[in-house]
Amino acid sequence: MPDDPPGDPRRFGTWAFYAAIGRAFVAMCAVVPVLFLVEAVDVGLGYDLDLAGGIIPRRIEGLDGVFLSPLLHADFTHLYSNSVPLILLGTFVLAAGFRRFVWSTLMIVLVSGLGVWFTGSPDSVVIGASGVIFGYLGVLLTRGLVERSWWNFAVVLLVGLLYGWQLFGILPTDERISWQGHLFGLVGGVAAAIIFRRRRFDPGERKGPVLTPPV
Questions:
Q1: How confident is the model at residue 200 (pLDDT cuts 50, 70, 90)?
Q2: Number of domains comprising the chain
Q3: CATH number of the domain to which 78 belongs
Q4: Phi and psi at residue 208, in whole multiples of 5°?
Q5: Reported pTM
Q6: Residues 115, 132: contact at Cβ < 8 Å?
Q7: Radius of gyration (C-alpha) of the chain in whole angstroms
Q8: CB neighbours of 6 closer than 8 A, spacing ≥ 6?
Q9: Considering only Cβ atoms within 10 Å of each terminal Cβ, which end of the chain, N or C, has fewer?
Q10: CA–CA distance, 157 with 54 (Å, rounded to integer)
Q11: Per-residue confidence at 170, pLDDT binned at 50, 70, 90?
């Protein structure tokens, strides 16, 4: 089998790989100021956006929060705590391809949000991007398994060393934290990594069934 081309962005160590990481990092860094702008508007409106766009479990008026809640945060401290892991994890998810990133993000948001809507307390309003963060963690961890990508494992290990204590967020240890959003976000990330995984084909193999001529 011939070696991968030196410009293959999927191959660790190539210039194309590092360029893909760099572009993804810049893109994710551009997302965070948007979240800060949304939070600034929310503060100016007296946090009315949180109630209008948050997930209110098992209430129809809170169903639109499935897609809006990741853009909202309780305060700037909440947003600061999510910004760095969002950039770090999102960079490596995005570097593997824009379309896969978009579809994976949509699945994570949907699974995490609906999980909260069905299982959360109807007296709560759930906001924040932490479900997406746990989803990206699930994507990278599962990609390492299904695509045999050791550098995905390396990223997960790095994040585990930096933010390992936050992994307890998938357990109901603090009533102020939506453990359902974290847990279902992780599940959505695992599912996205499997569904949108990159299939490996040997370029020398024929596509389609192999027909055996009659004897």
A1: low
A2: 1
A3: 1.20.1540.10
A4: 105, 175
A5: 0.83
A6: no
A7: 20
A8: 14, 15, 16
A9: C
A10: 32
A11: low
